[in-house]
Fold:
Amino acid sequence: MVIGDGILTPAISVFSAVSGLELSMSKEHHKYVEVPVTCIILIGLFALQHYGTHRVGFLFAPVVLIWLICISAIGLYNIIYWNPHVYQALSPYYMYKFLRKTQRGGWMSLGGILLCITGSEAMFADLGHFSQLSIKIAFTSLVYPSLILAYMGQAAYLSKHHIIESDYRIGFYVSVPEKLRWPVLVIAILAAVVGSQAIITGTFSIIKQCSSLGCFPRVKIVHTSSKIHGQIYIPEINWLLMVLCLAVTVGFRDTRRMGNASGLAVITVMLVTTCLMSLVIVLCWQKNVFFAIGFVFFFGTIEALYFTASLVKFSEGAWVPIALAFIFLIVMCVWHYGTLKKYEFDVQNKVSINWLLSLGPSLGIVRVRGIGLIHTELVSGIPAIFSHFVTNLPAFHQVLVFLCVKSVPVPHVRPEERFLVGHIGPREFRLYRCIVRYGYRDVHKDDMEFEKDLVCSIAEFIRSESVSPGNVTDDLVKDDDKMTVVGTCSSHTDGIQMSEDDSANTEAAGPSELKEIRSPPVNKPRKRVRFIVPESPQIHSGAREELQELMEAREAGIAYILGHSYVKAKQGSSLIKKLVINFGYEFLRRNSRLPTYALSVPHASTLEVGMIYHV
Structure:
């Protein structure tokens, strides 16, 4: 429903603002101008999203401030000029009297009153830009009083103008003095754009959270600010929202039906939020259950009245948010189900360390020279793709690195905290796990620089492990050993340094207290690799031998092994499961973003391995 609100709110906000043109031109011309102008403004609004809120955010506060002052001043003028006694309507008694007198008609009118409170359901989106205290102060001291004055002013005007002689719709612009309509129209359009920005940002935030939880297909997430994590832009969702906004605008061409649709979306979001808030009260705040029940009963009863009043207008436009929510719900359920089945298969078929130990140091296969980088999304264990590969092709590189690239929710990761390195199995197996961490604003290095930093971090891990063996567990029956934080070459100048060149007779360059480990001469080496190890503290012979083998493997080259898994429903599955997995999930997988690796993989040294998961 929030995503549906992100479609309907920009459409009705801009369309309502532009509808003021009907009082400034003939009705014949107005109907040909209103929809095209609204569509042009919406296209411009979504086209500017990729610049980020921080680029144009400095305009938001002045526009909203001018708009609030404008509507409160007009409201105050109408109150004084038309009906100063309208302030009595603030009493809840008149609300009760109105509902008692009108009964069913008054209850059905609650669906239209919902438009007075739209926007408050998207206030969570402002948390990506402002603190909670600033939002509370701004709402209670400025926004709320301005809205009350504006609505009281309109009520005062309507109390003296029950019958409008013209054919124009009764709306906000009717109560605006004629000389001020054009300036107010411009300010209203700008305010509608700013108000739409909040719900669009909120939609991006919801999609990002759903994608992180595995409940939405992978999409490209662009962080537009290096300081504030909540400012994001999702290209695919942005253009989808734009197309749907234009479809709603062109399809309805009427603020009444748009209002019915938007009202149902808004009150549904509020009702669900109230129900979920009861869980927060009990589980997070540790309050009494009866307090949570009282909260839901009080607010839920009020919101249920609005919800039922909006639901009655299902055929008059309220079906749109329900249809959109149903479509997005199917997409999310199908993707989550397929992702869950794939994860369960990975966990159940994960290669155990006992199976690895039974193979011996050679792993039961031919170990050829070089380093094999196996990309995996698992941060622990050995992926099933590895056993699938060695079963069908019993040969692998002398040094194996299970590489996992992760994006963390900070702008930048310091170079000294870039890598997490650990052993898999005994030392003589030459199996390593490396987790590479990137911030969302980090610039990813090319493959040559990344390879150098990766090999250097593994070498530094070997050295640090040898001089402080207590940091790493010796229990080999565990699936994963302890990981060690290791930085890039530039971050540990007092540790191992690596140099590469194409000359076979290059002398060591460095201070006298550094001792150089050279690889043995080979015929026509691709490049010469040297590790310069500090003289103190001393490293034992096993670590020196491990470094020697790592150098030989680096000289032979690095191969990138990328695993691709395809999920299929196993034989004997139900028809619904086959439709969901074989068609629904497969369609979404093919049309979603691939797992993003934070480095550019060279095509010349890439090997892709496919595997079918029968779930």
